[in-house]
């Protein structure tokens, strides 16, 4: 039995598309709803799932071809049938044509695939292999760790057996749903797998084909070359959306051409021998890129103030034991600062807004980002609807997300959608700093070290626990008056927490 794969409905008024990428080739086993190819229209990219399980047959529409709605793309043959497109398949490759795990693959071999990486994440870097070729593995035992722009993902073994082949070596880039390794359950697999010839030397993904035709056309119209556009398609192929992103970046910062890398100063031979060169992690590269983008795109300015922490410290000392006994979580300073910021954002809503083209988008909610240091770099988990939460709920959310951030267990969804951010450099001893915006947000509050200082209160010089506060803001949307007002409201709420109760 043969099943036809046809072009799905592409959207209102869209009548044709370009075949951008085929994820399968004739002869490959496919499951129901497994992605077969990607189509590209003027507006969107459409993935085409398999309508049935079986074996990939003939590919009718090749990559780069233009197809209409309901046009025939390919055929799927039943598992027991031999596809026409593979009738001349070379027999020399048969020993390596392992079928996917748990899908009737012969020889007891199971493929280890890249798991779901998160919304909008299409690739990852293989950070560490915990097993080597020839090692025995148990089902669900951790095989390797993948690193994306934001999180680390551990890959468990889908079956018990022997690690027969590592397809993606450490340091290589793999696509979502790509193949990582092969697990064999056969008795002789260990000896065969340990042979040097079986150990692949996988290299980082390279472009395997031409860029999408519509992307070429768009680059030509915009006067861009391929090296000016970062491809996000399969194997680095440039898609039309990539060209649009490159054009938007050029318009946003027309005078900011890519500066050549700063040449290294001459290094003596004996000094060079004592240097250590370590490749930046994907997380660190993303942090560096986003921070620089924030400086390049926003008119960033910082205003400062100081707050007397005595009222909060007295209140905390008085109720911390009762609070922990009732709610099961310690009463910290972050809940006070979160509440104070939510209160101030109601009065100065532009600090909680963002710029979208020529529009200002005001957020009638507060998704509070809490900057958290981890062994691999800074991440910003988001506490959603913080303006509706109690002190206890905020403390619980911050503690739980902070622990998961340090363990590398945060999902992409938990780090997206923030509207304002709080960064506490005081935990590291910082007395004063200027935090950098977390785009597309328009404001970030920097907390600092609490330090006893002499201040004047009621005409008398007294010693008080003082903290410097810093608000960095996007001057394109937030005026100086609004920024100063926001910081003053935060200061007032912290120095007299009763104002939060009375909504003053």
Automatic annotation (TrEMBL):
Residues 251-270 have a biased composition (Low complexity). InterPro entries: 2-oxoacid_dehydrogenase, 2-oxoacid_DH_actylTfrase, Biotin_lipoyl, CAT-like_dom_sf, E3-bd_dom_sf, PSBD, Single_hybrid_motif, SucB. Pathway: Amino-acid degradation; L-lysine degradation via saccharopine pathway; glutaryl-CoA from L-lysine: step 6/6. It comes from the Bacteria. Transmembrane segments: none annotated. Keywords: Acyltransferase, Lipoyl, Transferase, Tricarboxylic acid cycle. PROSITE patterns: BIOTINYL_LIPOYL, PSBD. Residues 80-109, 202-233, 251-272 are annotated as: Disordered. Its EC number is 2.3.1.61. Residues 210-247 form the Peripheral subunit-binding (PSBD) domain. It is an enzyme of class 2 (transferase). Its cofactor is (R)-lipoate. Residues 2-77, 109-184 form the Lipoyl-binding domain. Residues 83-101 have a biased composition (Basic and acidic residues). It catalyses: N(6)-[(R)-dihydrolipoyl]-L-lysyl-[protein] + succinyl-CoA = N(6)-[(R)-S(8)-succinyldihydrolipoyl]-L-lysyl-[protein] + CoA. Gene3D superfamilies: 2.40.50.100, Chloramphenicol acetyltransferase-like domain (3.30.559.10), E3-binding domain (4.10.320.10). One of its GO terms (molecular function) is dihydrolipoyllysine-residue succinyltransferase activity. NCBIfam families: PRK05704.1, sucB. Belongs to the 2-oxoacid dehydrogenase family. E2 component of the 2-oxoglutarate dehydrogenase (OGDH) complex which catalyzes the second step in the conversion of 2-oxoglutarate to succinyl-CoA and CO(2). This is Dihydrolipoyllysine-residue succinyltransferase component of 2-oxoglutarate dehydrogenase complex. It comes from Seohaeicola nanhaiensis.
